[in-house]
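note to self: the first set is below, dont mix up w the second
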Amino acid sequence: MSHMDAEMSDIVVVLDGCPPQDIDKMVTKLRDAGVSVSEIDKDNGVIEGTCETAKVRSLEKIECVKYVRSVFNYIADFPSGDPRDRDDPNEDVDPSDAT
């Protein structure tokens, strides 16, 4: 059976008024807010990452964040054993859903 554990967004966070030496602090704030950071461009004040779609708007309220752009949204179905997996382990699996 196909499940939807989370709606995720690949995002670009554009900073404004944040000195390059403070970018690492911003990365920590974004990680604390649930962003999995993948790229950091200190020269341009841009941070790329992934987070749950529901958290995107709250990221815009973080100090120095000018805006957050959702580049790509998708539904994630995490594998068994992953802490983000929301599937019931006792649920029967329909063989026609196996890939």
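second set (the one i keep forgetting abt)
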Amino acid sequence: MESIYTTFLCERSKCRKESILVTEEVEDTIKKGGYISCSHCGCRNVIPIGATDDLRKCMDHAAYKKVHGAIRQVRSGWEKKGKISLWQ
């Protein structure tokens, strides 16, 4: 069974942010000749970190809270670990 969500990490040294995308949409975009880029800075150099069926597993490395009805990231787990591991 294929995973629903795929997590990508921007390789740009100034950005290093994470994007969670629907796997089916990623495959469709690549199949049509498109590319996946960072949603924060637009860089094409993104690497897949992992894939899962549960959205909470994609978000478990950081702390989040609700601010005015939207979920905001409070603390990143990547900073706590010191360096980034590609496959957790």
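remember for set 2: The chain has three helices and five strands.
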